[in-house]
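Researcher: Quick test of sequence recovery. C-alpha coordinates follow.
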Protein backbone atom coordinates (compact mmCIF):
# COMPACT_ATOMS: atom_id res chain seq x y z
CA UNK A 1 0.00 0.00 0.00
CA UNK A 2 1.50 3.35 -0.97
CA UNK A 3 2.60 5.69 1.80
CA UNK A 4 0.29 8.50 0.69
CA UNK A 5 -2.78 6.25 0.93
CA UNK A 6 -1.78 5.11 4.44
CA UNK A 7 -1.18 8.70 5.50
CA UNK A 8 -4.52 9.86 4.12
CA UNK A 9 -6.35 7.02 5.90
CA UNK A 10 -4.66 7.92 9.18
CA UNK A 11 -5.46 11.59 8.70
CA UNK A 12 -9.11 10.79 7.99
CA UNK A 13 -9.26 8.54 11.05
CA UNK A 14 -7.68 11.27 13.20
CA UNK A 15 -10.20 13.86 12.01
CA UNK A 16 -13.09 11.47 12.68
CA UNK A 17 -11.83 10.64 16.17
CA UNK A 18 -11.23 14.30 16.97
CA UNK A 19 -14.79 15.21 16.10
CA UNK A 20 -16.17 12.31 18.16
CA UNK A 21 -14.01 13.16 21.18
CA UNK A 22 -14.91 16.85 20.95
CA UNK A 23 -18.61 16.02 20.77
CA UNK A 24 -18.36 13.70 23.79
CA UNK A 25 -16.36 16.26 25.78
CA UNK A 26 -18.95 18.97 25.13
CA UNK A 27 -21.83 16.72 26.19
CA UNK A 28 -20.08 15.30 29.28
CA UNK A 29 -17.86 18.08 30.57
CA UNK A 30 -17.77 16.82 34.17
CA UNK A 31 -16.64 13.30 33.39
CA UNK A 32 -14.14 14.56 30.81
CA UNK A 33 -12.53 16.88 33.36
CA UNK A 34 -12.54 14.09 35.94
CA UNK A 35 -10.76 11.73 33.56
CA UNK A 36 -8.15 14.36 32.67
CA UNK A 37 -7.51 15.36 36.30
CA UNK A 38 -7.36 11.76 37.54
CA UNK A 39 -4.99 10.77 34.74
CA UNK A 40 -2.77 13.77 35.47
CA UNK A 41 -2.65 12.96 39.18
CA UNK A 42 -1.74 9.34 38.44
CA UNK A 43 1.07 10.45 36.13
CA UNK A 44 2.41 12.84 38.76
CA UNK A 45 2.35 10.20 41.51
CA UNK A 46 4.02 7.67 39.21
CA UNK A 47 6.82 10.12 38.32
CA UNK A 48 7.45 11.05 41.96
CA UNK A 49 7.59 7.38 43.03
CA UNK A 50 9.88 6.52 40.12
CA UNK A 51 12.20 9.44 40.95
CA UNK A 52 12.42 8.43 44.61
CA UNK A 53 12.98 4.78 43.72
CA UNK A 54 15.82 5.57 41.33
CA UNK A 55 17.34 7.98 43.86
CA UNK A 56 17.39 5.45 46.73
CA UNK A 57 18.02 2.08 45.06
CA UNK A 58 20.97 0.67 43.13
CA UNK A 59 20.94 -0.53 39.55
CA UNK A 60 21.08 -4.17 40.63
CA UNK A 61 18.01 -3.71 42.83
CA UNK A 62 16.12 -2.09 39.97
CA UNK A 63 17.07 -5.01 37.71
CA UNK A 64 15.88 -7.55 40.28
CA UNK A 65 12.64 -5.63 40.76
CA UNK A 66 12.10 -5.67 37.00
CA UNK A 67 12.53 -9.44 36.90
CA UNK A 68 10.17 -9.88 39.85
CA UNK A 69 7.63 -7.72 38.02
CA UNK A 70 7.82 -9.94 34.93
CA UNK A 71 7.35 -13.08 37.03
CA UNK A 72 4.41 -11.47 38.80
CA UNK A 73 2.78 -10.51 35.49
CA UNK A 74 3.23 -14.03 34.13
CA UNK A 75 1.67 -15.53 37.24
CA UNK A 76 -1.24 -13.09 37.13
CA UNK A 77 -1.88 -13.83 33.46
CA UNK A 78 -1.80 -17.54 34.28
CA UNK A 79 -4.34 -17.09 37.08
CA UNK A 80 -6.68 -14.65 35.37
CA UNK A 81 -6.51 -15.62 31.70
CA UNK A 82 -5.40 -19.25 31.89
CA UNK A 83 -2.35 -18.55 29.75
CA UNK A 84 0.85 -20.60 29.78
CA UNK A 85 -0.96 -23.88 30.23
CA UNK A 86 0.01 -27.22 28.77
CA UNK A 87 2.60 -27.25 26.02
CA UNK A 88 2.85 -23.45 25.97
CA UNK A 89 4.50 -23.47 29.39
CA UNK A 90 7.14 -26.08 28.58
CA UNK A 91 7.76 -25.32 24.93
CA UNK A 92 7.65 -27.68 21.96
CA UNK A 93 8.79 -31.28 22.40
CA UNK A 94 12.42 -32.07 21.61
CA UNK A 95 12.68 -33.42 18.04
CA UNK A 96 16.45 -33.28 17.68
CA UNK A 97 19.00 -36.05 17.34
CA UNK A 98 20.43 -35.40 20.78
CA UNK A 99 21.55 -37.53 23.68
CA UNK A 100 18.87 -39.36 25.68
CA UNK A 101 18.88 -36.64 28.34
CA UNK A 102 17.28 -34.21 25.87
CA UNK A 103 14.75 -36.78 24.68
CA UNK A 104 13.64 -37.40 28.25
CA UNK A 105 12.13 -33.91 28.30
CA UNK A 106 10.33 -34.38 24.99
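Model:
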Amino acid sequence: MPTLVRFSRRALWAVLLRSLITEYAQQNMGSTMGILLFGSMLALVYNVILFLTIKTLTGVTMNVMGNVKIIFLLLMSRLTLGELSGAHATGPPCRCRAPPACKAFG
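Residues 40 and 97 are 57 Å apart (CA to CA).
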